[in-house]
Amino acid sequence: MGTLPQGSVAATNEADENELPQQPAAAHQKELDAGALFVLKSKGSWIHCGYHLTTSIVAPALLSLPFAFASLGWAAGVVCLVIGAAVTFYSYNLISRVLEHHAQLGHRHLRFRDMAHDILGPKWGKYYVGPIQFFVCYGAVVGSTLLGGECMKAVYLLSNPNGSMKLYQFVIIFGSFMLILAQMPSFHSLRHINLVSLVLCLLYSTCATAGSIYIGNSSKAPEKDYSLVGDSATRVFGIFNAIAIIATTFGNGIIPEIQATLAPPVKGKMFKGLCVCYTVVTMTFFSVAISGYWAFGNQANGLILNNFLGDNDKALVPKWFIFMTNIFTILQLSAVGVVYLQPTNEVLERTFGDPKSGEFSARNVTPRLISRSLSVITATTFAAMLPFFGDINAVIGAFGFLPLDFVLPVVFYNLTFKPSKRSPIFWLNVAIAVVFSTLGVIGSVAAVRQISLDAKSYRLFANV
Fold this sequence. Notes:
With 464 residues, this protein is mostly helical. The chain has helices spanning 25-31, 34-39, 46-57, 65-72, 74-104, 112-119, 122-159, 167-181, 191-216, 232-249, 255-260, 269-296, 319-340, 342-352, 362-385, 389-417, 424-454.
């Protein structure tokens, strides 16, 4: 590795005393821009890291897993889910080890694009990883805002079936709540919110599982059909679309930024945080996917909660149960949205903030309030205007989450540690990179095809 240039924002000299001499605190603060200094401050513990990881991965997107199973069937669905969990846990550990390695050398990377800049070259960080991460994360903010509005509308129609409020109005209400949470100053300051988020994802996943089992065992249950529907072309594209759904459900895209919140020394802390996260992943992903597909078969909707309403929107479970599940989902979506807003906040802070002034000085608070508010307002406007954004997000996910979470970690590891070409780990990493690069391309094609099929129903500010 080459030495980072003087003033690089990719580095701090927070190495262990036994490995490298410590620099005075003031020395490394001068090397950090306002984004790294204020948004990505390194004060957290491994358990805080576990909260951040869980919120970024165990999100309401997992409620679409039964829908993915409907295109894959039992065997392929379970196999893909297991592979997704195993490969992402492995990849996230690899990227964590690369980050730890650089931290021990005195070059602690705080951002994904900084890693790409140092390992792959400046152009990779500036023109590929940076933009891709921004679009993925900001797309997740828009998607969370839209889904939050849809869940609020579902609660509203449950209590007032003839209500006249439109979807865009609920999106604006949810966006207003996000506007408040977006003012949290740093990623580390979200630790308590993300602990609540962890509890909420367990609650709505339990509700989704319990509701599916209840309906599946009731006389109101739809006829269980696990066959794959459609002609050959539809089935093939459905399979790749389902694989992309599962892969992006495990997606994160901000592992370096989460590890940046850890107080030094960082060695071993990320692994503990990942163990917390994947304990929750195992409890939620598999229970929701298997119970939802068992109860509804190939009739599973894109959001399994929609299956809780039968013909003529008649509730198949008690209304209070649907209401409660949606409330848990709405609350967690706000935390997910704010977590994925952090890379945008970091860019805004770096652009408009002054690292020489205090974090809460008027010089920094004023541009922070204005820029973050405009960022949330823009995301809310997109969510209200494009209620079909889920189709667009599928393209972003296939084109972004797959390389960021499946491909780049193994590439970074091989380039950093240079394992022997005779070693199994080298060829395992190469195989992962090739397979998931291919899946990313195919998933993008499948997502674009879905957009072309749905385009005739697209309408701005549609009340879907």
